[in-house]
């Protein structure tokens, strides 16, 4: 797979790559949605490890799983996450503590700061493959459907300009009335 978009991006799962006729189309964003325990994290780690095997920088950005939990998942499959950059974006307690008096709601500040850290990490590491886990947390930070959708569309433009193939993980624990990113995540 080349960074300019030629060829397919293998997932590291032979049967899935066969069904996809070689893998994913590069430089796209894909939604991986399923119930907790369905295997989203396992699929995401295989996707990133395949990138490492092919010499591509790989980044796992997490708002939900800790690095320790990801290492445990990898160990349970006999894998090493060597070569995969893991960035944790822990939510600030201020988001949940509404007693602070500021001009902006704490979630607005937290969303902006978290997104900026994510974008900075992508620009610094220049990954070819990215996993963002979990959209449910981003949805909570955004608080409204329009803010959530705008953030997803901004992510799409950001990643496409950087020639990244991205898996967005969502656990179907969404807020009623706020759907996932079907408009921006395509195969």
Low-confidence stretches: 1-5, 175-183
CATH topology: Rossmann fold
**What is the name of the CATH superfamily?**
P-loop containing nucleotide triphosphate hydrolases
What structural category arises from helix and sheet content? alpha/beta
Task: Give a short account of the largest sheet.
Answer: 5 strands, parallel
Number of helices in the DSSP assignment: 6
β-sheet strand percentage = 5-15%
Strand line-up in the sheet with most strands: 1-5-4-2-3
- Cα-atom radius of gyration: 16 Å
- State the CATH architecture: 3-Layer(aba) Sandwich
CATH class membership:
Alpha Beta
Roughly what is the average pLDDT, rounded to an integer?
84
Order of helices and strands: HEHEHEHEHHE
Distance between termini?
17 Å
Task: Give a nutshell description of this structure.
By secondary structure, the protein is of the alpha/beta class. The chain is built from 6 helices and 5 strands.
Could you characterize the architecture of this molecule?
With 187 residues, the protein is α/β, with parallel strands linked by helices. The protein is 40% helix and 14% strand. The chain has 6 helices and 5 strands, in the order αβαβαβαβααβ. It has helices at residues 14-19, 40-53, 67-76, 106-125, 135-142, 145-161; strands at 29-33, 58-62, 84-88, 129-133, 165-170. It has a 5-stranded parallel β-sheet with strand order 1-5-4-2-3, with helices on both faces. The longest helix has 20 residues, at 106-125. The radius of gyration is 16 Å and the shape is globular. The two termini are 17 Å apart.
Descriptive tags:
187 residues, Rossmann fold, five-stranded parallel sheet, 6 helices
């Amino acid at each position: 797979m080349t960074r300019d978009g030629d060829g397919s991006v293998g997932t590291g799962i032979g049967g899935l790559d066969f069904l996809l006729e070689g893998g994913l189309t590069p430089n796209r964003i894909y939604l991986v949605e399923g119930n907790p325990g369905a295997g989203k994290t396992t699929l995401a780690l295989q996707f990133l490890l395949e990138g490492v095997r092919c010499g591509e920088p790989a980044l796992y950005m997490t708002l939900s799983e800790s690095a320790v939990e990801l290492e445990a998942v990898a160990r349970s499959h006999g894998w090493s996450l060597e070569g995969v950059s893991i960035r944790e974006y822990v939510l600030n307690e201020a988001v949940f503590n509404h007693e602070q008096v500021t001009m902006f709601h704490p979630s607005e500040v937290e969303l902006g700061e978290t997104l900026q850290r994510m974008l900075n990490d992508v620009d610094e590491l220049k990954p070819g493959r990215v996993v963002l886990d979990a959209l449910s947390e981003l949805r909570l930070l955004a608080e409204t459907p329009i803010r959530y959708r705008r953030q997803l569309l901004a992510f799409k433009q950001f990643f496409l300009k950087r020639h990244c193939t991205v898996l967005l993980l969502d656990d179907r624990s969404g807020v009623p009335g706020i759907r996932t990113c079907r408009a921006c995540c395509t195969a």
